[in-house]
Amino acid sequence: MTLQNWTDAILDRLETVGTRVEIADGATLFAPGAYGEVFLILRAGIVRVEQTSPSGRTVVLYRVGPNDSCVMTTSCMLSNIPYSGFGYAEGRVTALAIGRDRFNDLLATDAEFRAAVFTAFSQRIVELSEVIDDLLLNRMDQKLAQWLVDQSWQGPDIHTTHQRIATELGSAREVMSRILKDFERRGWVGLKRGVIHVRNLPALRRHARLDAV
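and the corresponding structure tokens:
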């Protein structure tokens, strides 16, 4: 989900006070324990934000796209608390970097900047609450793993769409897409348009039965 809060007028002004940075594919932008010192607005590329539990289970919280900002970074900049999750570049990322002092100055003096920051922040919090409900409370990742196991009796290629799966499992397409992307990153499935290729059926079976262990 890309939020459209950073208008061309704001971005043009920020280009004069920020610094363009290039981030390599796969690079770690932040990790738990680090403090936020730079506010980033993506101009190109994707940043995946995820959290890992003490047991090692990883949940993708959201992705930051072009002309979007990271709610976790905003929270860290505002509260001066360390990051609790990881941020990874998916592909090459171009971003506009604004240091902490300049960020605070803009919040105090630029009403349009301030409104964009807090609007993006509040919109992402709503999305995060949906992710938490689906992934942590309802364990939708386990439900999807079991669904893939059930469907794979016909063979490794499951011909369907993310929307059809979401309808069957009573969730949202965006949630299904996030979980499937995570499964793909783990090497459990391969994703093509209209096809999910099951690569590691035993891993999916184990994941579906985590609560029974």
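(Above: one complete record from the training split.) DSSP finds eight helices and eight strands in the chain.
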